[in-house]
């Protein structure tokens, strides 16, 4: 009977060790995947920011061209009417130019705000990846400690010189128990 018990204990220890190892490997893989995902998300946010800045710059260029055309039309209309670009006409052209430039500035303000938001998202993603990796390390340490503790407990229960009757004691069978002393 002893070889069976020793084999069973050895199998139990091996299974505990293998389970602990596999759990640790799974946690490592999850940490690596979380970190890679965070880096990918950060990269995508940065690419999106660059794309939106590029679109904003193109929109600003087009808006400036349209603004120049509008001012040229106003000048041409004033010139056909015989108005000089002085006094009220000049003030109107300056006011129109400033208003049109504000439209260009608003385009860039929106783009730079969005770019800052995306950069913040990228930084947050990287931070989250680092936190996931750190949390995984602690989970790995916990799993290793639990596995070692379980194996130590199993080894503590194993007595190399034990006999079959020590493990499955025959002294306490239902026919030999004293129910009166136990249950009154």
Write the layout of secondary structure elements.
Layout: H1 2-80, H2 87-157, H3 164-167, H4 179-183
Structure write-up:
- With 184 residues, this protein is mainly α.
- It has one domain (2-168).
- It has helices at 2-80, 87-157, 164-167, 179-183.
- The longest helix is centred in the N-terminal third of the chain and has 79 residues, at 2-80.
- Mean pLDDT is 82; it is low at 163-171.
Q: Could you tell me the mean pLDDT?
A: 82
Task: Classify the secondary structure makeup into a structural class.
Answer: mainly alpha
String of helices and strands: HHHH
In terms of DSSP E residues, the strand content is under 5%
Topology, number of strands = 0
Helix proportion range? over 70%
Count of alpha/pi helices:
4
Please give the alpha-carbon distance between the first and last residues: 36 Å
Count of all domains:
1
**Computed CA radius of gyration, to the nearest angstrom:** 39 Å
* Main sheet characteristics: none
**Which stretches are low in confidence, meaning pLDDT under 50 for 5 or more residues running?**
163-171
The protein's oligomeric status is: single chain
Shape assignment: rod-shaped
